[in-house]
Write a structure and sequence with these properties.
single chain; 307 residues; alpha/beta; Trna Endonuclease, Chain: A, domain 1; 2 domains; five-stranded mixed β-sheet; two-stranded antiparallel ribbon
């Protein structure tokens, strides 16, 4: 039964299966949502929009210290915007006073909502905008509107999440293709983020593994054949020594699950594998199912799930 779906779907001889696999690795899995999560950006800006508009009144101030202190005492809620202006998410900051003079004690700033503000506290927050350089945004008229400015900040902060989005994109893409196969067969059932506990609860199927809390990306159960398929996904743009250990991990995982009669499906892609072909080929030849997105697009999951 090993590799039967490859022959069926691709129509290539056994000795060409891995070559075909390598030749169809993708260079990218970027989708439109990868670049900026605009819903998140808009939501974050909306949460501080009123306070930012209040701060706008300070732009171009000729007596910024006096005006800032007066403003935050009257509208203490505006201080929650100050970390955002520095592209910082934290609402509490500890800043070393002056390491150049050997002073390693902290200024401690709390930016959580306050209903009132004392003169001393207001002066403390003025120290924050002064020492952090934020004061220049008010004095030099480098910006015209803090709301527009924070939109830019939020887009920049969101771009830092691209690495995490890249990791989850492969999972999202595979899930769409898996669900297409599920829709084509009423005997198939599906859960995502499948732990052994969830699997046992849903299908009364006991999966034993030395890491009992392990979560598999997807689990598919054929109610007709009572066959369980556990699926893991990943995508690698770059190579490196890590990929060799990844191959070893999925080889061991396959052997452990196979001994229990569970089918392990590893779906991986990316040109990073071009630098680590030998370890990948060893796992490819050991495991029943090492797939890429090209094979999924060809409908190989229908072949596998229906065996």
């Amino acid at each position: 039964m090993k590799y039967l779906p490859f022959y069926t779907v691709l129509g290539v001889p056994e000795e060409k299966v891995f070559t075909n696999f390598i030749g169809n690795l993708k260079t990218s899995i970027k989708v439109w949502d990868y670049f900026v999560n605009w819903d998140k950006v808009n939501k974050n800006v909306e949460q501080v929009k009123i306070e930012l508009n209040i701060l706008n009144s300070l732009i171009g101030s000729t007596d910024i210290k006096k005006d800032f202190i007066h403003l935050v005492m009257k509208y203490p809620e505006v201080i929650k915007t100050l970390p955002v202006l520095l592209a910082v998410r934290d609402n509490k900051l500890e800043v070393i006073r002056d390491y150049k003079k050997g002073d390693l004690d902290y200024f401690i700033f709390d930016f959580k909502f306050k209903s009132s503000m004392s003169q001393n506290d207001a002066e403390k927050y003025f120290t924050f905008i002064s020492e952090s350089g934020l004061i220049d945004l008010f004095l030099d008229k480098k910006i015209k509107n803090f709301v527009d400015y924070v939109y830019g900040v939020e887009v920049g902060l969101d771009s830092n999440g691209r690495k995490n989005r890249g990791g989850s994109l492969m999972e999202e893409i595979v899930e769409v293709l898996v669900l297409k196969s599920i829709d084509n067969n009423s005997n198939l059932d599906f859960i995502s983020q499948a732990t052994p506990k969830k699997i046992k609860y849903k299908w009364s199927y006991q999966v034993k593994f030395d890491k009992s809390a392990r979560s598999y990306d997807f689990a598919v159960f054929n109610k007709s054949t009572e066959k369980l398929f556990l699926m893991e996904t990943n995508f690698y743009n770059g190579g490196g020594s890590k990929l060799k250990s990844v191959c070893g991990e999925f080889k061991t995982l396959h052997n452990e699950l196979s001994s229990q009669g569970v089918e392990m499906i590893w779906i991986t892609d990316g040109k990073g594998w071009l630098t680590t072909q030998r370890p990948l080929e060893e796992t490819f030849n050991n495991n029943n199912y090492v797939l890429n997105l090209y094979l999924l697009k060809k409908g190989i999951l229908d072949e596998i799930f229906n065996q």
